[in-house]
Design brief:
This protein has helices at 10-24, 31-43, 51-58, 69-78, 84-100, 114-121, 124-132, 140-155, 161-167, 171-180, 191-199, 208-227, 231-245, 249-255, 257-274, 277-294, 300-316, 323-331, 348-351, 361-365. It has 371 residues and is an all-alpha fold. The protein folds into 3 domains: 10-87, no CATH class; 112-200; 218-361. Helix 12 packs across helix 15 and helix 15 (257-274) packs antiparallel against helix 16 (277-294).
């Protein structure tokens, strides 16, 4: 008896692709990526899906969205759902919420959501009242969808200073827009002012969360200033982080792996600005000791964060000897077990994009090859 096909909407296809990539750890952009996904599905004890089936579903342009229901069921279970029906039910609930603020997911419609209209026209009072309601919302997926619309609205707006000033203190805007959907490329207009608003009033010594936020915001700024050759601003942030704040090893453990990885990586950039080769060599050796001590009790996700953060700064620094690239790869070699074949033997600049943890996977998937 032939397996039943399923007419898959563009919306459900895009959401499935996103969740599969998040679960896999990198965007699916090639046949090699499809092969690795196929292997991982089998490793996890699920029924096999061929590389060619995954390629047709996610990457083949012009293909009809009519996969086997069995294929969708396996992919949904790979993403942590009970099956396709569970996945579809959850996505329809989110879709209903999204349509509630006037967002139409169909590709052919260009209608702006009410959130976008409010931000673009600076009619922020209704949005202010709307955002206040999220203090009582517990559903993470709903919060992410709201933050994604804020991200899209600010990205397509010419001037976001009023929005940043008025909304930077809302918990959902801070946690889900500024932090979860961080924009390390500063593509959003006035994003620098937004991060400065986010940091306003924080000292770094009131609580662990206060310290975490100070490290997060200032590291984003330092990285941005360094890449854009704004040396004076980068040095000023570096002095604040590494001279005045001077986070110790105990505090690094307290603030969590992502902020601590960013903090140590940005210290590489700060030393680079000062041009001290001896200090750089000493610090890198200390950091390898720090990473080695922790790697055995860290999750794969935590290791990915450290590998990416450190590796990216290795590439940005002219003071890092190339043999440190190989040492970094060797230390985190087990991460490559779930990566496309032969990636380990590539140069670091080819590897790092697969581990991109600097922002949300949301940004990576915006450039996907989906139809």
């Amino acid at each position: 008896m032939p397996k039943p096909n399923y007419v898959l909407s563009d919306y459900l296809k895009q959401e499935l692709y996103k969740l599969v990539c998040i679960r896999l750890g990198f965007p699916i952009r090639s046949k090699l990526d499809c092969r690795k996904l196929s292997e991982q599905i089998t490793v996890e004890g699920l029924s096999s899906i061929s590389e060619s089936s995954l390629y047709r579903l996610f990457l083949l342009r012009g293909s009809l969205n009519r996969p086997y229901l069995h294929t969708l069921d396996i992919l949904a279970r790979f993403c942590g759902f009970k099956g396709w029906n569970d996945f579809e039910e959850q996505q329809n609930k989110i879709d209903t919420f999204v349509r509630g603020f006037g967002k139409f997911p169909q590709n052919k419609l260009t209608v702006k959501s009410l959130i976008t209209v409010c931000i673009h026209t600076e009619e922020i009072k209704p949005l202010y009242y709307y955002t206040e309601q999220f203090n009582e919302v517990d559903d993470t997926e709903i919060k992410v969808k709201f933050a994604e619309e804020i991200f899209h609205s600010t990205l397509t707006n010419s001037d976001n200073r009023l929005f940043f000033r008025e909304f930077c203190r809302f918990p959902i805007v801070r946690e889900y827009f500024f932090e979860f959907l961080a924009d390390p490329t500063f593509s959003i207009p006035n994003y620098e002012e937004g991060i400065l608003c986010y940091l306003k009033g924080l000292r770094g010594d009131d609580s662990v969360k206060d310290l975490r936020d100070v490290v997060f915001g200032n590291c984003l700024l330092l990285r941005h200033y360094f890449i854009n050759q704004q040396r004076a601003k980068a040095l000023l942030i570096g002095e604040k982080l590494f001279v005045h704040l001077n986070v110790n090893e105990h505090q690094l453990n307290d603030i969590g792996v992502f902020p601590s990885a960013r903090y140590l990586s940005c210290k590489i950039l700060f030393i680079e600005l000062n041009g001290d080769t001896h200090e750089m060599r000493e610090f890198i050796e200390w950091m390898f000791e720090w990473m080695t001590k922790r790697i055995h009790y860290q999750t794969i996700e935590e290791q990915r964060i450290i590998f990416y953060s450190v590796g990216e700064c290795f590439l940005l620094s002219a003071l890092i000897d190339l043999h440190f690239h190989d040492r970094l790869k060797a230390l985190f070699s087990q991460l490559f077990d779930v990566m496309p074949n032969k990636l380990f033997h590539q140069k670091l600049h080819k590897i790092i994009p697969y581990f991109d943890q600097n922002g949300s996977i949301y940004h990576l998937l915006n450039g996907s090859n989906l139809n």
